[in-house]
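ingest -> fold -> write
write: protein_1
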Amino acid sequence: KFKLNNGEYVMSSITAENTDTILFFSRSGNFYHCAANAIGIEEKLPVESLVSAKNNEDFIALSSLNKNTIKENIIFFTKNGFMKKSEIAEYNMARKGIIKALTLDDNDEIIRKILEKNKYMLKYQQLP
């Protein structure tokens, strides 16, 4: 319930517990993580203040990682028509800084992310 400045918009939102890990995915195939309890309530923060991101990293998706989501799959789609499906548990790392979610060609980028809860249900997330 905070006021957005001109040119700002909400790109994505998730529900998370204080004990969750939040995963931030960028268009360039990188991902970063931080503890959900590092994010203030009703506080507007730049993602870069939470993670050690490269300059001008364009974040496009986020997910929460916890005991319930650890069994889910994540599927990425790229601009050039490629996809990668992996267990979200693969992104449960204690490393800081830049970590590659997937390696992309020079002119490619992630454009969509889908969470697969089980083989019969997909949760689709529209990105700008």
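write: protein_2
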Amino acid sequence: MRYAIFGDIHANMEAMDAVIADIANHKVDLLVCLGDIVGYGADPVACVEKIKELDCVTVAGNHDMVAVGMMNPDSFNLFARIAALWTRNRLNDESRAFLKDLPLTATMNNFQITHANLFAPSLFEYIQTSYDAMRNFECQEKPICFVGHSHVPVTLVLKQDTIVFTLDPEIDVEPNVKMIVNVGCIGQPRDENPMSAYALYDSEMKKIVIKRVSYNIEKTCKKIVDAKLPEINAERLRYGR
């Protein structure tokens, strides 16, 4: 099967539309969303409705949980917190119910998905060190775990008790190894590349490709400013930070 796996949309409809248009150029059997549909951006309801329309396999992100009152926003920085509370006040009943019902993890035939990690999915801790990665590998029942959360595409591979990482956008799925694949971010990239990122996974060819897609950043920025959301949430989009 061929999967398109993406996350961290962050209410950026222009980026979401561009990625879905790019996915349409590939023969994909299933769409998978790693959460954080909302937060930061000005189109939370439209992005939730798009995910529902696409019938994605979807897990919850921390911004989704905060937006529906299932998490406290106090751990967020000021600009994220302002956007989260703004979002909370603008979700309709249908979008709110959809986000509340999302699971924290999901298991497919040959991979698992979660927003941040498998070892404590409700805490949304980042996988930043080899120790974090090993904790995830210990909980990982399938060869591959797809994550988001950091907004930076990177792959961690466990080979014979050694963890190596790669930023290569084309990854071969080798036998007898475990992998954590961060697919990057649609709506607010942070690897100094403003283009949206998502992953294509071909389980028969045993290959994962991280794709980059351009979108109308200025239109998104204008929406954020017009909504009186923090202007830094717009400015950082221009630089992929």
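write: annotation protein_2
The longest strand covers residues 196-202.
The CA atoms of residues 153 and 184 lie 4 Å apart.
pipeline exit 0
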